[in-house]
């Protein structure tokens, strides 16, 4: 099963490689990983998507918690949470395809954020299912480049993680 | 007053009470060595190879409980230390390894003697640091010692670029350190402790299974009280030997692959397993699917990640062994008389039947020296009081099986990583920490050659270690597996040309004695220990194809042992 793990870690050089190294050293799966500083510049927030049985994911969380740079860790999947992913897609858009692409983007509440005479660059956000659906909807359009951010997540309710 | 980075390093070591540093100089650490030269408070032990420095610091740490400290240069100095760092990591030994680094402006430039030491050591340390600023040295050292010695201990590497060690800054050592991301649990959860006590009291076939965590956590006294007040059988892992005295009748000896029959059968048939500071290692559990099929399991460990990693447990208690056992002992003392007396008597009757198998018997009348006999005679010659280090292989198992360790920190071996070459340098660290005490390194002709250069260090610092070389000409454990599982195809496990160990010992300035007859074993040992100030290398020519028994073959359960 897929698990979304949210991690606050010290914003220090090498912290990211400690996390990544742990996954390769212990043969855990990493599906996606995003990391950036938080409002407190001494902390980074990482969202990591991994798959495995409950036992394995429990070990993953314990081993991550053991890393000295990890300040706090929450397995978001255990409770109600929101998740978002962002995708940028550069597609070929010529003649009647320009309208079609525009229609698809509108349906998914996305935006065209750059264009040339022959291409559009699209931006869509949503949960992973929606992002997958966008890609499916664009199957007949020539995609020149695709980049996904990986998932971000946050618990629902009035409590913050920090 | 302003000090250089190098001087600050010395001050940090002094503030942490470090008396010995094991190391080897080189370009990137010359400023630090210059600072060493100008003071006498912290003594530097010059080894002959950086691997030796790490093992010596490791032996020092294991025998004292204090962190071992290592100083090596950049590049090959750091990579040579890697095996010793990994050895300490696998056995959770507190250690500080200072590695020199090329000057900051050269980092990433493929400079002379540059390696990414932090990157190389990352998976084999508890934590590591690259210091970027001379102002950070004191704080980093404080953090490093704190991290290395608390919680589940482990090695910490501090990588220091050369230019920083020359810069000057005012020095102040922090008296305390707080790390928001690191707060190891000390005391156990009260509710869990109460549940555990109930389960312990109602057991009918209990087994206490303890590991190196009891020694690392200084919980030996508490363990003795706990075990004796209950009168339950206890078995200890390779790493745990000595925490509970081997000479106590409650002790069933070691468990696992080469454990005793009674310990492994007891494990297999118990109904309550009390695991303390042990991590259910594969050499202990055998086939996990067949492990302790009837047992409810209580697990006390300081490392939450050790809980239910290999074996699901019923009552986990996270925290340090000593305070948790204190709490349990108090609960036990204050609670009603247990009602399981009859069941426990029956259980002991069963265990004593297994014991009667005498699984450690061997041919004591042999005309050839049996390795087991040498270890037993070593025990007799030293009244069981010597510090024993070992290398890795058959001799290590014989040492564990036949030298009954009665006190913690007396038995020093590389259990987790299984590092050949560990024994001699580790013995140096032990001897330095315990001058005047008997220190013997039980080794084999293969292992000893992996760090034999340290004989030179032993001469320089007058370390009267006794080397017990069980010389059968083979890499014994490899040969044993080849005999059992590869139809005696002894691929590369035999040395066609062994050196004359007596001559080697003498060339290094020590005493060498070759022993070829069983009758000469004890006199040779007595003679060696009479030499209080000299290293004596005893080369025992032993039975070439003796095997370590009993044995659990790979994939088998603890109840499926091969006996002699």
Blueprint (SSEs and pairs):
The complex is a heterodimer of chains A (162) and B (564).
Chain A: E1 2-10, H1 15-25, E2 32-37, E3 43-51, H2 54-66, E4 70-75, E5 81-92, H3 96-107, E6 111-115, E7 119-126, H4 128-137, E8 143-148, E9 152-155
Antiparallel strand pairs in A: 1-3, 1-4, 2-3, 5-7, 5-8, 5-9, 6-7
Chain B: E1 2-4, H1 5-15, E2 20-23, H2 30-37, E3 43-46, H3 50-64, E4 68-72, H4 76-90, E5 95-101, H5 117-121, E6 127-130, H6 137-149, E7 155-161, H7 162-166, E8 168-170, H8 190-201, E9 206-210, H9 212-216, H10 220-230, E10 234-236, E11 251-254, H11 261-269, E12 272-276, H12 282-285, E13 296-301, E14 315-318, H13 321-334, H14 341-355, H15 371-381, E15 387-390, H16 394-402, E16 411-412, H17 423-433, E17 439-444, H18 455-460, E18 466-471, H19 476-485, H20 501-507, E19 511-515, H21 518-530, E20 536-541
Parallel strand pairs in B: 2-3, 2-4, 4-5, 5-7, 6-7, 9-10, 9-12, 10-11, 12-13, 13-14, 15-16, 15-17, 17-18, 18-20, 19-20
Antiparallel strand pairs in B: 1-8
Helix pairs in contact in B: 1-2, 1-6, 3-4, 3-17, 8-13, 10-13, 11-14, 15-16, 15-21
What does this protein look like?
- The complex is a heterodimer of chains A (162) and B (564).
- Helix content of chain A is 28%, strand content 40%.
- Chain A is an alpha+beta fold and 162 residues long.
- The longest helix of chain A is centred in the middle third of the chain and has 13 residues, at 54-66.
- The model of chain A has no long low-confidence stretch (mean pLDDT 95).
- With 564 residues, chain B is α/β, with parallel strands linked by helices.
- In chain B, strand 17, helix 18 (455-460) and strand 18 (466-471) form a beta-alpha-beta unit.
- Chain B is globular and about 70 Å long.
- The model of chain B has no long low-confidence stretch (mean pLDDT 97).
- Chains A and B meet through helix 1 and helix 2 of A and strand 6 of B.
